[in-house]
Amino acid sequence: MRAQFVLSEIGVGLRRNLTMTFAVIVSVALSLALFGGALLMREQVSTMKDYWYDKVNVSIFLCNKNDAATSPKCAKGAVTSQQKEQIEADLKKMDIVETVHHESTDEAYKHYKEQYSDTAIASVITPDQMQESFRVKLDDPEKYKVVATAFAGRDGVESIQDQRGILQNLFDLMNGMNVAALGVMGLMLIIALMLIVNTVRVSAFSRRRETGIMRLVGASSFYIQMPFIMEAAFAGLLGGAVACIMLLVGRYFLIDHGIALAEKMQLVNFIGWDAVFSVLPLVLVIGLLMPSLAAFVALRKYLKV
Description:
By secondary structure, this protein is α+β, with helices and mostly antiparallel strands.
């Protein structure tokens, strides 16, 4: 009988405040969708780092005869065979170095033509203008500075480039977008909490006569509060469910179909469905607990009056 009464009260409350309940559902759904999207964006950045950092190299560019006039580091002329042998030997002695590949000027010229064949400058570049280099793969790409410190300023070395830095700008941009999404999520969350508190108070005020009678017959505060808390929990759970649908639809249309980023950006290792499904339970739990706690706090003060 008590359970039936509580359920009937929940139905009455939802019907009386249908518009405000709808606003709560929408605000909770948007805030939780942004929250879930921020978590997935962070996972995407982590996935891309693990994928690309494992493939990037440290490039040690060697002086050629043309660099002597343009680069102070190559003032002593082009790199000699002895210098190249010494650099390669020192690289292979380092524990953090996994592999070392020497790229000749002919190989560098071939790769340049493959990548920039459509540009005007590609037709005037000659092999002797290209730089020899050592492509160094590290066990831990984060230890780039060890190599840079060991070989910077050495005779025959023109520059040292960490390819990880090329990707870092992209990762910084994605992290910035992630922070912006969290900021908007926080704003939407505050709006949702304010709506929840206001909805609960309006509902409690409209049923003040019923709650007064329940107090007179000895009903406990928790029993009086239960219908209001469950109304808020129900609205929050619906909002969480809508947020989950938005995340699933977003993953489907952005990556697999519609915009189809997976086809257009095949070099990017996108997160899979397992990452999305792992976020959904957390979204639902927050959608259920957040309105319940907000309603509980709001009612404690209101029902003491």
